[in-house]
Design a protein that fits this description.
- The chain is of the alpha/beta class.
- It has 3 domains: 3-140, no CATH class; 173-247, Multidrug-efflux Transporter Regulator, Chain: A, Domain 2 (Orthogonal Bundle); 253-555, P-loop containing nucleotide triphosphate hydrolases (Rossmann fold, 3-Layer(aba) Sandwich).
- The protein has an 8-stranded mixed beta sheet, sandwiched between helices. A 5-stranded antiparallel beta sheet has the order 4-8-7-6-5, covered by helices on one side.
- α7 runs antiparallel to α21 and α15 (368-378) packs across α16.
- Residues 264-416 form the AAA domain.
């Protein structure tokens, strides 16, 4: 004697020793009232029942990792050779889902006498039921109305856990940065950063002028980044004709430079080294992570451990509800003096979903989302010289970055698949800008440049790809390229940048080669910024002089005291 799980009755279509598949319905159920969702139901069964189920059916593998289960006793397959009208899917989580085969109306009419239903029901002997039927086998559609929904339970869990975190006083410290410190810089490194000689800095120290350096082994002098910036202020005041060289911050009338780094090959790494390189040169920099995965934030040491972050990303400054906050409330410090970060988090994906929902409504226009980014950045316009926007995959956030930006940087690897992908991103850019301008706002960028990354100069095919790009892009393709480097990779494995490490940490030769590549690329971008501000460019020439010094500069670091 068997017991049905639902109040259906009908002719037995296939019978196995311990499992009975019972189906019943009418033509109207198939072509009238039934939706695709109603054409199949899922029952969760215990491992014991599942094992007995499989014993009664033949199983075949499926591409999606599940198991395709067919009845051994379907008489119609033996008679006609046609596919069975009922089959089941056994998922990895232990869910057995019964489906019906798709039937055209003509086939259904012809075979109606062989199958009565499109809603199969599973009947299992009571001896195999180890838990109450209502709990173990009840379809989702037949659960009590007053039962708590999963989404409500998850929301309750999140609220409860967050309340516990706040009660312990830990929420105020999130997101947790990695508790590390930035190393000091040797006298030779400081001289190279400032563009002066090491002997000049040594004499300043002896005369007691400027900040007092730390004396290490054998009397070697070293400076923190904060002291380097103090040196900038001193040199700018003592050598006023070269004030812009030592203190390159914005002057009155200079607009905030907002550089949007488009998602692409090594784009996060490019944003990371660009922000740190600008800070080393004395600029006040704000880096904003617009990636819901927080890739840039992880490079800065955030989210490497700790507790979840709530309303502590750019989402807090551009969200649509009453919990919107000022962007100042989500700005976090970094190891570098003058460099701050707005971390990225999974909550940025909520903004994308909200924009998509509002976009489909009648009272929302697509560019309205990007205007929120512009408004948020206006709050900190006077606090920084440069903002680096690291774009992710989000469409609305990327559109906001394009409208807010004064310049755009596109990274490309000199390989054909990456060039094709970059071309697609260019079409996306023009699409976003067209939508923004259609809303009545203009988008004027001071520059739109391309940077070749992960370049292997020994690869002939890559050299040909760069030459191919140079023809249509012209001067918009930066001369400098960032080389594929083991040093950059090793630094990333250590959770650091090359600016944070000494040459001995990753190998001197590889370190100096990678630093030459990075500094050259950053120098070109800084010269472009200088031209926008109406200044004479000099960073590329300064980087060239540092490179020409080469080994002599490297040796002086070790001998300088």
């Amino acid at each position: 004697m068997t017991k049905a799980l639902a109040p259906y009755s009908g002719r037995l279509v296939s019978i196995a020793p311990t499992v009975v598949v019972l189906v019943k319905a009418t033509m109207a159920d198939v072509y009238g009232r039934c939706s695709k969702a109603q054409a199949s139901r899922t029952y969760m069964v215990s491992a014991k029942v599942m094992a007995r189920w499989i014993d009664c059916f033949t199983c075949e593998g499926r591409r999606d990792g599940g198991t395709f289960v067919r009845s051994k006793t379907d008489p119609r397959r033996a008679r006609s050779g046609s596919p069975r009208k009922c089959f089941a899917t056994l998922s990895r989580r232990g869910a057995i889902q019964i489906h019906q085969m798709r039937l055209t109306k003509r086939r259904f009419d012809n075979e109606a006498k062989h199958i009565d239903c499109c809603l199969p029901q599973v009947v299992i002997e009571p001896s195999f039921i180890t838990e109450p039927v209502t709990r173990l086998f009840m379809p989702h559609s037949e659960k009590p109305v007053d039962q708590e929904r999963i989404v409500e339970r998850v929301q309750r869990h999140g609220d409860s856990i967050w309340a516990l975190i706040e009660a312990q006083g830990m929420a105020t410290r999130a997101p947790f940065p990695d508790p590390r410190t930035l190393r000091s810089f040797s006298l030779g490194e400081v001289a190279e950063i400032l563009g002066v000689s090491g002997s000049y800095l040594r004499q300043l120290s002896i005369d007691g002028l400027g900040p007092t350096p730390e004396l290490g082994t054998a009397g070697r002098r070293s400076y923190t980044l904060g002291q380097i910036n103090e040196l900038r202020d001193y040199l700018a005041s003592s050598r006023p004709k070269e004030a812009l060289k030592f203190c390159p911050r914005r002057r009155q009338g200079d607009k905030l430079q907002i550089i949007s780094v488009v998602a692409g090959p090594a784009s996060t790494t490019t944003s990371f080294y660009l922000a740190q390189g600008l800070a080393l040169q004395g600029f006040r920099v704000l880096a904003i992570d617009l990636d819901s995965h927080g890739s840039l934030s992880g490079m800065f040491g955030y989210y490497s451990f700790g507790y979840p972050v709530h309303n502590a990303s750019m989402y807090a400054a551009i969200r649509y509800d009453d919990d919107q906050k000022s962007i100042r409330s989500v700005i976090q410090p970094t190891l570098f003096d003058g460099l701050h970060l707005v971390p990225g988090s999974a909550e940025l994906s909520i903004f994308e979903e909200d924009c998509g929902r509002l976009f489909r409504s009648e009272n929302f226009k697509y560019p309205d989302a990007s205007s929120r980014m512009v408004s948020a950045l206006k709050e900190v316009d006077a606090d920084y010289d440069v903002v680096v926007l690291s774009c992710g995959d989000g469409g609305f956030l990327t559109a906001g970055a394009y409208e807010a930006a004064t310049g755009v940087l596109v990274t490309v690897r000199p390989e054909m698949p990456d060039i094709v992908s970059m071309t697609s991103s260019l079409y996306s850019f023009t699409h976003f800008v067209a939508l923004i301008e259609r809303a009545g706002r203009t988008v004027n960028h001071d520059f739109f440049k391309y940077l070749v990354t992960r370049h292997d100069p020994r690869d002939v095919s890559q050299q040909k790809s760069i030459a191919m790009l140079r023809e249509p892009l012209g001067d918009d393709l930066l001369t400098a390229t960032v080389w594929e480097s083991d040093a950059i990779r090793q630094a990333g494995d250590k959770g650091r940048s090359l600016y944070e490490l000494s040459s001995g940490s990753v190998g001197r030769s590889s370190y100096e080669q990678a630093m030459k590549s990075l500094n050259s690329a950053n120098a070109e971008i800084m010269d472009i910024m200088s031209e926008v501000w109406g200044r004479a460019p000099f960073y590329v020439s300064q980087a060239s002089r540092s490179t020409t010094a080469g080994k002599a500069s490297s040796e002086s670091r070790g001998l300088s005291k």
